[in-house]
Amino acid sequence: MNIFPENVSTYGQGIDQLFWLILVFAGTAFFISLFILLYPLYKNHHSRVKRASYITGEKKSQFFLVAVAMCILALSDFIILFAEHDTWETIESLPKVKDVEYIVIGRQWNWAFTYPGPDGKLGTSDDVVIDAPDSELHVPLNKNAFFHLKAKDVVHSFFVINTRLKQDCVPGRTITRWINFTKQGKYDISCAEICGVGHTRMRNFIVVESQEKYNHYIDSLYKQHSAVAGN
Amino acid sequence: MSNTVHSQSFLRKYIFSTDHKTIGAQYTITGLVMAALGGFLAYVFRYNLAFPGDAIPLFGELTASQYNTFITCHGMIMVFWVGMPILVAGLGNFLIPIMIGTDDMAFPKLNMMSYWIFLFSAIVLVISFFVPGGAFGGGWTLYPPLSANGYLNPNPSFFKALFYGNSLMIISVALEFTSLLMGGINFIVTTINRRAPGMTPWRIPLAVWMINIATVIFMFSVGPLIAGAFMLLFDIVLGSGFFDPSRGGDPILFQHLFWFFGHPEVYVLLLPALGVLGEIFPVFARKPLFAYKIIVYLTIVAAILSVVVWAHHQFIAGIDPRMATFFSVATILISIPFSGIFLAFMATLWGGKIRIELPMIWALGFIGLFLVGGFTGLFLGSNAFDIYAHDTYFIVAHFHYTLFPSIFFGFFAAFYYWFPKFTGKELNKTLGYIHFWGTFIFFNFVFFPLFFNGLGGQHRRIFNYGMFDSINIEPYITFEKIATISAICLISIQIVFIFNFIMSWMSGKKAARNPWQANTLEWLAGSPPPHGNFDNIPTVYRGPYEYSAPETDADYLPQNVQP
Amino acid sequence: MENQRSLSVPILRVPQGRMAMWMLIAGELMIFGGLIACYVLYRLRFPEWADQAVHTNTLIGAINTIVLLTSSFTVVKAHEAANKLDIGKVTLWLSASIGGGLLFLVFKSIEYSTEIGHGFTFASPTLQTSGDTIGSLFWSFYFFLTGLHGLHVIVGMIIMFLALLNARKGQKLYRVELAGMYWHMVDLIWIFLFPLLYIAK
Ligand code: HEA
Ligand code: HEA
Ligand code: CUA
Ligand SMILES: [Cu+2]
Fold first, then answer.
1. For residue B531, what are the CA distances in angstroms to A224, B98, B196, B522, C3?
2. Which of the listed residues B394, B396, B481 should we mutate to test ligand 2's pocket, taking the one with most ligand atoms within 8 A of CB?
3. What is the DSSP string of B379-392?
4. Which of A21, B282, B473, B475 is deepest in the core (most CB within 10 A)?
5. pLDDT at residue number C13
6. Does the C-beta of B386 come closer than 6 Å to ligand 1?
7. pLDDT tens digits, residue range B93-141?
């Protein structure tokens, strides 16, 4: 079933699987609970029962079953926590290898992208900044791309639906997250934290392409940039 | 005593009354009027989501900034001006004194004052719609810097800034907190000090326990947010920089202050409704509440846990990932006490002699719906999944599946159960059933599809998905339409309720003193109970849930009957 | 009505006024607690604040601490006198406490006016224009904390004054105790603020 949009990151699968795992536990518990709730309505309907039994539930033997159910739930809680922890670690911590990096700045109401300049370093004067509506961030395929997320004015949230990654961008901080794309294409970057009137139209793109095409794009970008700077 | 009742003027009796029942009714009716406003706002923005760009019947064109304003005020109103007055202040006022067997609150004048401050806060909120720039539109969570300065001009003069939507919103919330703090002190003192002779702690009905535990969590968690609200207000009107990152302030600090209160707050809204269930289930199953004491203990455990889970709203807000893991564990663990509570409620039904009446069916509907909300909470509590689900419609659906049952199903269960007591009239059953099934079915049709919209990646607080080709697709578009049409039906069906309410009150059949044959003390008083409630303060001999007890042949044994 | 009230027996033998006052105090402490926690968190983050804290007047702060402690003592005396139904003494000691509050406010306003005179205000525009915006945040906290506390001093004085009016007529002597409890809270909060704002430099 395709209840999730297509996944294009290395770790996105983990999140989708986590959903199904929790659904198994929660779904089972849900139907068991529903049965416990509804069955007595039939079995103990007043037309079938002469007198209710006087059970206070305070005795240990009476509460036993509930306690068992609570323990089962606790157990499944721990299984869930155990299963999700790896995914969380993978997404929230950075891999050792950094292939490419970018600065992404959220502002009212656009995402601005900074590519490292020809020196390959961010934060130097030859950086290329692109801040235009509908602009695209180009990223190579199958590479660990690091995103240094910042915000200029208010809180925004960097959300690339198809990779399952979401991270708030907070003014005054730089938060680094990474994505390794597994499929070429053009994907939405949306903003998931309300940031004012333009929140609804804060959308840019990530373009994932092969290393060759990517190099080509970066070259043309540098040329364009130096041409502009030269003038 | 009767002299005092008759000599009261209309004003003293209905408007500036110190009688707990009148004040309870004032809270409830104010809450319902605000619910109508909150529901209308929901109608307007839901209509826009399904039919973007169309002129909305009864409203007209909606702009993006109005959309933001409307969802913000919808959330604020529903939580603070519907949930709090109806469930906490309203039920607390109606039930606490009469259920513990006393004539009124410990401080009746303080009680009256808290209502008037509450009403004033509601008026301030409504006024904020009409100031230049409109009401605040940055989400009910009030995150700075957006709420501090980001959305209007940055350096306003003091008085101008004081009357901005965001300032007024903060002021009205602060006033509301003040009123509820006063009310809360009243509730707790009344419960501790004014119980009828023999009303020992373990003879107090669950509803009273729950309302008091809710009040304690509220009073414990709200302090830091009051401080935070003033810091935010000063940022707006005085130009300080408490949350302004360019001046060293930290926006995330406000998020912590908000959610340190905000999460306990959702349990404040849940617990009174659970208390109502605790009254209704035993009565209609003719069986003692299963594990009454354990329920109370579990609730206290949950209440304590509730103040250490707040950062699950901020998993991806930029907090330390290890801290997030701690909060994830705490969040998931909180499902355990709740599972005990809910299973105990369900166990009450087993072996009972069940009558399905209106209050009972609302109570059952409550549990059925809350299960969906509670279990989706488990998904969100796992921080890895929350990376994806955060701020999508999955969350919107989660919290409507928790809030709507507790606020509306809880309230309606209480309403159909205690209406005969507090008005002395019976309700029309057929209309009651229409109201129930309408609400139940349409509610599911509104919010169940939205889970899928959320999983599909639709993020919250979006005026128009037109820009997002990847999520503005089928079946989500159809789901939006289903949700909207059902929401319209859901709101319309409430007319049945209003009609039933008014008609039964004016010309319903006279109700008996104890129509459900229940044990608790309120059924001992007249219907409606006079000022002062009881002819004589009753003496209590046993717990509230002695149904089908072996001592008697009758299947109930009121608390005040001498053994 | 009245005889009904006497029928319902309090189960805990704590007068309800005292209980309500405890809860009010607990609520107030949560407000101040939240605020102080925020201050401490920022303080740990910004060692630079020490440069600003130098400008607070430790001497006046210390004197004010003594003033408040003394007035707390006199309020205890007033309570003792109220227990002995000694109206004259109650009036005396309560007035002394109110005087203490007044003295506190006088010192505080001297302090405020020198600070404001040096350009340290709630939002400190001079600091901000000189680029020390983080320093200006210290003063925001300083004025918010002490201002809110000062407000509580005023409220405490009003409460004591009302208790005094009642006590002089020999009525509602229990109010002396309640006023005293509130005043102790005001004192307690100051005991926290003094080291945090004046001593830590
Ligand atoms: C009444 C309101 C209410 C209640 C009760 C809850 C209950 C819970 N909520 Fe929810 N929540 C909200 C209202 C509520 N919530 C709101 C308003 C928001 C969003 C605010 C915003 O951002 O605007 C929110 C958001 C929210 C988030 C943040 C999502 C995000 O923004 O990223 C999370 C994350 O952990 C969460 C988790 C939970 C959990 C774990 C519970 C648990 O307490 C649920 C526990 C209950 C159960 C688990 C069911 C009972 C169990 C049984 C019956 C067991 C039976 C067992 C067997 C048979 C074995 N909630
Ligand atoms: C108690 C809480 C509560 C309740 C009951 C509701 C009820 C509804 N909510 Fe709301 N909602 C929130 C709390 C609540 N909501 C919150 C906190 C948010 C987040 C805001 C934010 O993002 O900042 C939100 C956001 C929210 C959104 C997301 C907006 C967005 O992110 O873009 C949507 C969208 O569908 C929505 C829809 C609805 C609908 C259709 C209803 C319907 O169920 C409404 C039905 C209406 C009624 C049941 C009222 C009927 C009237 C009466 C019963 C009284 C009549 C009496 C008299 C006139 C005397 N709500
Ligand atoms: Cu940027 Cu929403
Ligand atoms: Cu929460």
1. 83, 11, 17, 13, 14
2. B396
3. HHHSHHHHHHHTTB
4. B282
5. 59
6. yes
7. 999 999 999 888 999 999 999 999 999 999 999 999 988 878 888 899 9
Contacts B336 to A, Cβ<8 Å: 70, 73-74, 77
Q: Classify the phi-psi angles of A123: left when phi > 0, otherwise alpha if psi is within -120 to 50, otherwise beta.
A: left
Cβ-contact B521, B196 below 8 angstroms = yes
What pLDDT score was predicted for residue A230?
A: 53
Q: Is the ipTM of this complex over 0.85?
A: yes
Ligand 3 centroid vs B138 CA: distance in angstroms? 11
- What contacts B309, CB < 8 A, 6 or more positions away? B263, B327, B330, B331, B334
Give the ligand whose atoms come closest to the C-alpha of residue B261. Answer: 4
Which residues of chain C are within 8 Å of residue B193 when distances are taken between CB atoms?
10-12, 14, 16, 19
pLDDT confidence of residue A229: 60
Question: CA–CA separation, C93 vs C79, rounded Å?
Answer: 9
Q: How far is B331 from chain A (nearest CA, A)?
A: 10
Q: How far is the CA of B443 from the centre of ligand 2 (A)?
A: 11
B202 pocket-lining for ligand 1 (C-beta < 6 Å): no
Find the angle CA(A67)-CA(A68)-CA(A69) to the nearest 5 degrees. Answer: 90
A neighbours by CB contacts (3+ pairs under 8 Å): B
Contact residues, chain C, for B250 at CB < 8 Å = 42, 45
Contact B260, B221 (CB under 8 A): yes
Distance separating alpha carbons of residues B429 and B419, to the nearest angstrom? 12
Cβ <8 Å between B351 and A62: no
Residue B83 alpha carbon, nearest atom of ligand 2: 1
Tokens of A82: 């155990």
Assigned token pair, A24: 């198994």
Using CA atoms, how far apart are residues C57 and B8, in angstroms rounded to an integer? 58
Q: How many residues does chain A have?
A: 231
Sorted by sequence, the CB contacts under 8 Å of residue A5 that are 6+ apart come out as A161, A162, B456, B457, B470, B471
What single-letter amino acid sits at B444? Answer: N
Give residue B154's pLDDT. 47
Tokens describing residue B512: 């008996």
Contact between A66 and B344 using a beta-carbon 8 Å cutoff = yes
Beta bridge partners of B392: B459
Helix, strand or coil for residue C118?
coil
B20 pocket-lining for ligand 1 (C-beta < 6 Å)? no
Residues with CB under 6 A from ligand 3: A 106, 109, 156, 191, 193-195, 199, 202
Sign of the torsion angle spanned by Cα atoms A102, A105, A106, A107: negative
In the predicted model, what is the mean pLDDT of chain B? Answer: 90
Give the pTM: 0.94
Least confident stretch, B74-83, B241-250, B321-330, B338-347: B241-250
Q: How far apart (Å, rounded) are the C-alpha atoms in residues B164 and C168? A: 47
Name the residue in chain B with its Cα closest to that of C7: B537
Q: Does B537 contact C8 at a Cβ distance shorter than 8 Å?
A: yes
pLDDT computed for residue B159 by the predictor: 65
- Residue with CA nearest ligand 3 atom 1: A156
Q: Are strands A165-169 and A144-151 parallel, antiparallel or unpaired?
A: unpaired
Cα gap B22→B86, rounded to integer Å: 13
Average pLDDT, chain C: 86
Assess whether the previous peptide bond of B321 is cis (omega < 30° from 0): no
- At B87 the pLDDT is 94
B293 vs A contacts (CB less than 8 Å): 58
For ligand 2, say whether the CB of B436 is within 6 Å of any of its atoms: no
User: Peptide bond before C93: cis, by omega within 30 degrees of 0?
Assistant: no
Backbone φ, ψ for residue A221 (5° rounding): -65, -45
Rounded Cα gap, residues B379 and B399, in angstroms: 12
- Comparing B158 with C156, which gets the higher pLDDT? C156
